[in-house]
Specification:
Structural class: alpha+beta
Number of helices: 2
Largest sheet: 5 strands, antiparallel
Helix content: 40-55%
Shape: elongated
Distance between the termini: 14 Å
Number of strands: 5
Order of helices and strands: HEEEEEH
Strand order of the largest sheet: 3-2-1-4-5
Radius of gyration: 23 Å
């Protein structure tokens, strides 16, 4: 009987670690989406305006071979009001898969750190659609994890955490 209990305890510990990892992934998704949203809003409202040119674009792929997503990553060059030339990638982008290579774009940059900039598609501000969708996905992901965890407690009748007091 102790061997079965020991094996179940090891399973419970592994289950708890997997759940913890999934929760951390969901929280990281939410944190990065909120950070991107706040950064884009701050740059849109108080960033310095400059005209830039898209020097190059390349497609960045992520995901698995079966479930692959893509987005265009731009390198933009512009000159600040202080005469500093900056060539970098925007910190947040809303262009999706549009290739704007060679085009003039409006850049909104941080006055003290001009390498932090956005180049919104509409020239005024980044669409909140992407970050809000990531936040929504993370919340749904957390809810599903909670449902699975609650179901496992109901089915097994055992709280799968190693620090739980032994009965």
């Amino acid at each position: 009987m102790d061997g079965v209990r020991l094996g179940f305890g090891a399973f419970a510990t592994l289950f708890a670690l997997v759940v913890l990892l999934l929760v951390l992934v969901a929280l990281w998704m939410m944190f990065s989406a909120v950070r991107d949203l706040l950064r884009a809003r701050r740059l849109a409202s108080s960033g310095m305006r400059a005209e830039g040119r898209v020097i190059s674009s390349h497609v960045h792929y992520s995901g698995t071979r079966e479930d692959r997503s893509s987005r265009v990553v731009e390198t933009i060059e512009f000159t600040t009001d202080r005469g500093q030339t900056v060539r970098a990638n925007p910190v947040v982008s809303d262009i999706g898969t549009v290739d704007r290579s060679g085009m003039s774009v409006t850049v909104l940059h941080d006055r003290d750190r001009p390498e932090r900039f956005i180049a919104p598609r509409n020239g005024r501000g980044i669409s909140a659609r992407g970050p809000v969708m990531r936040i929504g996905f993370a919340l749904v992901f957390l809810a599903v994890i909670g449902i699975i965890l609650n179901g496992s407690w109901m089915i097994i009748g055992y709280v799968p955490f190693p620090w739980r007091a032994a009965s």
